[in-house]
Batch of 4 targets.
Target 1
Amino acid sequence: MNSKSVAPSENLLDELQSALAHGTVARRVETLRRVTDLFINGAVEFSNEQIALFDDVFQCLILHIETSAKALLANRLAPIDAAPPLTIRTLAFDDVIEVAGPVLSRSERLDDEALIETARNKSQAHLMAISTRRVLSGAVTDVLVLRGNDEVIHSTVNNPGAEFTERGFDRLVHRAEGDDNLATCIGLRPTIPRHLYLKLIAKASAAVRTRLEAANPQRARDVPNAVREATQLARAAPAAVNEETVIAHALVKSLFEDGRLDENQLTAFAEGGKFDETNASIAALANVSVSIVESMMVETRTEGVMILAKVAGISWSSVKAIINMRDQLSSGEPTDLTACKDTYERLRPSTAQQVLRFHRMQQAAVPAA
């Protein structure tokens, strides 16, 4: 079939004009049905110019039909990849969820910009519809996590096609406090950054840690002594180690064994935001386990970082780089570096060694998971 033969004819356009000017609601709805049928039957073959013509027709009709007819139109156009873009956008921004929902949840015509604008300004029902899309970018989930209620958050986290930014994961970890189901779902996301996984584990209940271990026993076997923070003390708990973490630890081990791991290399890791490499480097230079470093690095306060640095004999400039890295990864309030510098310069190596021994005893007192 020639695509030109199925474009809106002059007779149909005349009928449209007549229906808009003099027709009843029923006649307008019937005209909408005919136009929709015509579009759906030839959508695959239409050129961009022809789709734009349909877009104009639909836009005119949408202004003169009732909600139920718009909802029907949304349901019919939502699964069509070549649906008229302006019409899809108009339907997506409708305040009535029965109209907006089908498009928000299914239409591939909506770009991130439209989804983000909707998520920022519309109801929780609109956010819920967006959360069920086949694919969600990190930019979109950032808004869903920021504005969404508990139902929206759970739907988004349980969507296998959803991506999350580091900022999104950080917010999710905070939202998961006291919500075991959400904490478990977040912990099972394969892309969660390790430092945020550790923070999640630090706040998680024993039930959550058990679920995470049962869901992925390989991770639990890989690292039996990951860290959770409890009353500012390090204790053992199962944690996830992904392939990137293993590679990072192997790199640092190789540098250390070759005599190439020094303060400059540590600073470079920290300035590059490389959490795993920084932890492993501090552990090697301070002669402690990586798990102890992780436990002290994920603590809310900065004392742990300064204690490790003092034991390792690191200068303030490197400590500053490490603290800045922690601030960037946590997305929290920036640390008062002036106060930290004063504290670090007054901290005695002997005192730091004593506190570090205390951390070692605390970790040794808890049997491996």
Target 2
Amino acid sequence: MIIVGVGVGPGMLTQEAIEAISSAPVVYGSKRAIELARDHIKCEAHPIKSFKNLHLLPADAVILSTGDPMFSGLGKFAGENDRVITGVSSIQAACARFHVEMSNLAMITAHGRDPAPAREVLVRELGLGKNIFMLPADSFGPVEVAEVLEEMDIDARICIYEDIGYSDERAVSGTVQEPPLNVSDMYCLLVVR
């Protein structure tokens, strides 16, 4: 199979992704991923809800993954003989939007997971002096991150980037004392020293 990153929002497909999607004999993906790639799909597209059985799909199938498949995406399901095509990630988009250089950036995902391990990683990486990129959880977002920063006596800018690439895209920054609040569930967070 070929796992193709369709980007974090509209208009963020790479040329390599477009070519793979356009020549695919069959495409599978979430409803959102299919919509992001719709203009380039020339075959049957099948929405799937559970990605745990990807290995049962045809070997020449193209599987769409939102963002980049190798960060909190479907790339983790790739086998040795599968191909993975990168996509524009929320990491890239957020760092570009807020002018954050990525070489001192720790990437954390709490999205769809128990937030306790993400909190532990956050504390560890902040202790190492890193800036943070995070895909938050419902119960571990800007307010909870601000609380961790306050506990650690770290002054930083907290940025959230919502609905990247869509007409209602929103990018806001705040402080530890007044963290920005998300209005969408589809957002990422940066902690910048």
Target 3
Amino acid sequence: MSNSTPKTLDQDTLKHVFVHNLNRIYFGKCYLNNHLEHLKSLASFTALQQGIQEFWDDIKKQIARMEQVYKLLNEIPSDKNCNPIKSIVKDEFCLDEEQAIPVLLDMDIIMYLQLLEHINITSCHMLIMVAAQLEYTEAQQLLTECKDESIDNDELFTLITKEYIAVG
């Protein structure tokens, strides 16, 4: 393996990188979308349940936006090589383990969801850069909206955490 600076990627390779990483995020979001009802049911605090619902609503919008990106590129989503994101989603930090006090499970849920949002923020940021290079202006805008929602959700879960640890 060479330590030299990588060569600039050609347009076909850039598109391949873009679609590959879009697939990872898309199928991670789809998997999460199918499992958030269970996660929401584990939360003991009403504000957390409402936050998870807001997060879930945003995931549905993000999935729809990513589907628009696929249509713009004439691509079909493929879950080949999407194991890393799905593995994180499937793991769920062992959230089905019973805890002595409900706040422990709630804080685990918050940490888990924020971790997933940080992955999404980072992935969208990279996809936005590649989209700009490929001059996929509309895809760039759609992914920026996804990223902004993820940032907002991360902040929402931080505010919910503060409700747990606020000193009277």
Target 4
Amino acid sequence: MSYPSPRYLAENGAATAAYRPASAGPDLLIGAKSQVGYLATGASTDGQFGLYRWDMSAIPNGPGAHFHRTMSESFYVLDGTVSLFNGEKWLDATAGDFLYVPPGGIHAFSNESGSPASMLVLFTPGAPREAYFEELADIVATGRQLSPEEWTELQARHDQYEADA
């Protein structure tokens, strides 16, 4: 393994860091179940990665088992207990636990603990996942009902494919 080719070729560095204070509110609410903070999006990192803080209420929530064809996804639990599915079994992950899922890896997450939980979610490369989560939030907020075919189409547009758990 070696370093990738340089992406920055100027002689001197530049003041280009992006700061997000802890006091910044969530960027997205998904009903009463989840608050999402876009710490870094694919757009803000020039497609290198996306990093979100995912705060879950005590209400059971999370996607079913699925996989992605174009990106890896990683989960780092900050607080509480998050159930993580590693493609074979559900694991009760607590603060400091980490799960890496390569492209094609079946996974899921849920909060079934009865208490709030928080985690970081990292996508690489930086796919535009915000659009997917924002569409889900809109579906929840409006109460819109999708047919199985509409769910399949929505998920496929955002590199998400259902899998058997």
